[in-house]
Write a structure and sequence with these properties.
Distance between the termini: 19 Å
Number of helices: 13
Bound molecules: phosphoric acid mono(formamide)ester, norvaline
Shape: globular
Structural class: alpha/beta
Helix content: 40-55%
Length: about 325
């Protein structure tokens, strides 16, 4: 069946079929080729999009801006605290105003219910640029990167180490299940995803030929992995008071040389970024001083190794976001 995503929201990967995700990945690869060869693609000239950020961002914000501009759109960026939304105007009212002016709305913030409300009230496509629960545009970039590096998605052994119940853990489990990868969450059980989502992902994986597994055992979780993926231990919006407990829980799940050695020799290392792999950041330096650790979720050795594909992955944010904007607005 031909895929047509015009007018659709992009709020979470659970809402998309494997065929629709496949379509977006192929479109992304085509946009990447066009960008690299300098072929113009201003297909959305005359349209306008707005980017609402209630949390900070480098990759997602820049990807939406560059992708929108490459497609010929006008782009408005509203940074945390610079609109009336939430404080003086409800989400429903903000959505109805923005929907009168813009053809599409990107939102990064806290509750999934907020991005859902923007979609319910605006009347135009809404794209989730990260909530506490899901980060769907990151998933497209990650799948594209895996396919580029390993030549396939189906049957790939994918291991996620770290906080498996944050937006990245949740989203990667769903993305892998949809596209037939073998997903392993390698994490302490306190940080496993919610049971309803595990059940849902297992159901999806049964249909796609993939699998979903959760383990606290690092040896078992990393053995024969094709991809080892991690994320920061404390996510945006969480209080500083959780650092001590999170370090205690997640230090055994650091991606280091031993973890990579237990994976396949051809394994790649992935991370959505930003990453605390050294002390060259304010938070990295503070944590080093307070807790005596110079690297957190990944060692600098692994981050800088040949197996690390994190900057290709970051570039793919832009190509895949461009595909989402185009497919839903064209
Ligand atoms: N990976 C990611 O979403 O990065 P930013 O927070 O910089 O957008
Ligand atoms: N889990 C991280 C992802 C950042 C892209 C956060 O929410 O801060």
């Amino acid at each position: 069946m031909p895929v047509n995503l015009r007018g659709r929201n992009f709020l979470k990967l659970l809402d998309y079929t494997p065929a629709e995700i496949r379509y977006l990945l192929d479109l992304s690869a085509d946009f990447k080729r066009k960008k690299r060869s300098g072929e113009p693609h201003r297909y959305l000239a005359g349209k306008n999009i707005v980017l609402l950020f209630e949390k900070t961002s480098t990759r997602t914000r820049c990807s939406f801006e560059v992708a929108g501009l490459d497609l010929g759109c006008g782009v408005t960026y509203l940074d945390p605290g610079s609109s009336q939304m939430g404080k003086k105007e409800s989400i429903a009212d903000t959505a109805r105003v923005l929907g009168r002016m813009y053809d599409g709305i990107e939102y990064r913030g806290f509750a999934q219910a907020t991005v859902q409300a923007l979609a319910d009230y605006s009347g135009v496509p809404v794209w989730n640029g990260l909530t506490d629960q899901f980060h769907p545009t990151q998933m497209l970039a990650d799948l594209l990167t895996i396919e580029e590096k390993l030549g396939r998605l189906k049957g790939v052994n994918f291991t996620y180490m770290g906080d498996a119940r944050n937006n990245m853990g949740n989203s990667l489990m769903v993305a892998c299940a949809k596209m037939g990868l073998n997903f392993t969450a390698c994490a302490p059980k306190e940080l496993f995803p919610e049971q309803w989502l595990i059940d849902e992902a297992k159901k999806i994986a049964a249909e796609s030929g993939g699998s979903v597994r959760l383990t606290e055992d690092v040896q078992e979780g990393t053995r024969d992995a094709d991809v080892i993926y991690t994320d920061i231990w404390v996510s945006m919006g969480e209080p500083d008071s959780v650092w001590a407990e999170r370090i205690r829980l997640l230090q055994p799940y650091q991606v280091n040389a031993a973890a990579m050695a237990n994976a396949k020799p051809t394994a790649i290392f992935m991370h959505c970024l930003p990453s605390f792999h050294d002390t060259n950041t304010t938070i990295g330096a503070e944590i080093a001083q307070k807790f005596g650790i110079n690297e957190m979720e990944v060692t600098d050795e692994v981050f800088e190794s040949k197996q690390s594909v994190v900057f290709d992955e970051a570039e793919n944010r832009m190509h895949t976001i461009k595909a989402v904007i185009y497919a839903t607005l064209c």
